[in-house]
Design brief:
26% of the residues lie in helices and 26% in strands. With 449 residues, the chain is an alpha+beta fold.
């Protein structure tokens, strides 16, 4: 069974109200199979029809237990057609939500803890039910989809109701990279008053085309104004009540920091460990088991400010730079949203960093990506995962650079996955070997063939 691509914000179909199902025929059955296949492929727990382009009132929900999460509540595959909530409980609970249509963004959301609903099954039979707990929450989330409502809209409403001081607060956001752009998107969804500053794009790729920063791309996607700057020391900085810095490639001058009382940086490590420009890559390279995010008060010394809040996450054996970066950005956004209200209300205690435990990371250069085959397979595997996007791990074959995009370990042996010979397109290592006619280099003995 094939699957569809999930539509993501700001796709207009996600704002449309769906129509009731009137015909319970083969076309409906095929649609439901597609929805189930898509839900399972994406690893979600619920999917509404308009999330994959259908405009009728169909929801599929499934939550399976697995070895990683044996305590997870089991919800068997259930199809809800024309679902209608007829009663909400007065009791409410707050729980974290995400959405396949709003990737990498998670917010705490308050919802009624149980419901009474009516719906039809795939054969058109009328059913009444009284779901509670997680199922009740998933149903509310998906029924909102059918009504053209996204969970981030509810998160915005609840955040501003609880924290009205943010309605007119002037926030200066400084960011450039993907980590910062994910955090920026979350702040946009909350409806905050943002001035967005980012660095000017730099030439990249074979043809040295100027590529704008991920922060620019994210701002454009949501129709937000932004300012690109070459040198922050020479930029005209607007007044602000709060400065939020995330993944910005320049040191912030002291005269800008002194403009506002609240100046914070979101750093993707558990400071004082891994200060500097490459904390995520360094954590993978060194085989760290845990990492996290830190929100600190900015000073004129990079990453040395006192700590407002921290949150940690495990590093899995399969994490590479993009997966860990995105997870840390999601974690950083959640921590930021929880930290901002008490910070603005001056209810947070600052904790000094222990400089004796500090470690400093470096800027990686292209030559750092060359693989030293004298190292153990575990170290090479970590390097390949850490350098997934930059500087990329490579070796030489017939005096040409062979980039190794992906690899994994099997019984402590390195197995190559996706590779790319200089001037060629990426292929699997097996495909590369089928077309390789040169002399096999010595490093072939270091990998599993």
């Amino acid at each position: 069974m094939t699957s569809y691509t999930v539509r993501t914000i700001p796709d207009a179909i996600l704002k449309e109200v769906t129509a009731p199902v009137t015909s319970f025929d083969d076309n409906l059955a095929k649609q439901i199979k597609l929805m189930v296949s898509t839900l399972r492929k994406e690893g979600g727990v619920g999917l509404a029809a308009n999330q994959i382009g259908f405009s009728n009132q169909v929801i599929v929900i499934e939550l399976q237990q697995n070895d990683k999460n044996p305590d997870t509540e089991h919800i068997p595959l259930t199809v809800f057609i024309n679902p209608e909530i007829v009663e909400f409980s007065k009791e409410k609970e707050c729980f974290e939500e995400g959405c396949l249509s709003v990737p990498k963004i998670e917010f705490d959301l308050e919802r009624p803890s149980f419901l009474k609903i009516k719906y039809k099954d795939i054969k058109g039979r009328k059913i009444k039910s009284a779901p509670k707990g997680l199922l009740a929450r998933i149903l509310q989330h998906e029924i909102d989809h059918l009504n053209g409502i996204l969970f981030v809209e509810l998160a915005k409403k609840q955040f501003l109701q609880k924290n009205p001081q943010f309605k007119n607060l002037k926030i200066l956001f400084l960011g450039s990279g993907e980590f910062g752009s994910i955090i920026l998107e979350g702040l946009i969804h909350l409806g905050l008053n943002l001035n967005i500053l980012t660095e000017k794009g730099k030439p990249a790729g074979r043809y040295q085309m100027v590529r704008q920063t991920p922060v620019v791309e994210r701002a454009k996607r949501f129709g937000k104004n932004y300012l690109e700057i070459e040198n922050i020391k020479q930029a005209d900085i607007p007044d602000f009540d709060l400065l939020i810095c995330a993944d910005f490639g320049q040191k912030i001058p002291e005269n800008i920091l002194n403009k506002g009382r609240n100046t914070i940086n979101i750093h993707p490590s558990l400071l004082p460990k891994h200060r500097g420009p490459s904390p995520i890559q360094t954590a993978i390279l060194r085989g760290d088991k845990k990492t996290g995010v830190s929100i600190i008060k900015m000073t004129n010394q990079i990453d040395e400010g006192q700590i407002y809040a921290q949150a940690e996450t495990d590093i899995s054996p399969n994490d590479d730079y993009p997966t860990l970066r995105d997870r840390l950005a999601t974690l950083g956004l959640k921590l930021l949203v929880k930290t901002l209200p008490p910070l603005i209300d001056k209810k947070l205690r600052l904790v000094p960093q222990d400089s004796k435990k500090a470690s400093i990371t470096k800027i990686f250069k292209k030559e750092d990506g060359q693989i030293n085959w004298k190292k153990k397979p575990q170290a090479i595997d970590r390097q390949i995962r850490a350098f997934r996007t930059w500087p990329k791990s490579y070796t030489l074959i017939d005096n040409k650079r062979l980039i190794i995009h992906q690899a994994h370990l099997e019984n402590d042996q390195l197995v190559l996955g996706c590779v790319q010979l200089e001037g060629k397109s990426p292929v699997s290592f097996e495909e590369f070997l089928r077309g390789f006619r040169g002399q096999r280099p010595e490093w072939f003995k270091k990998i599993k063939m």
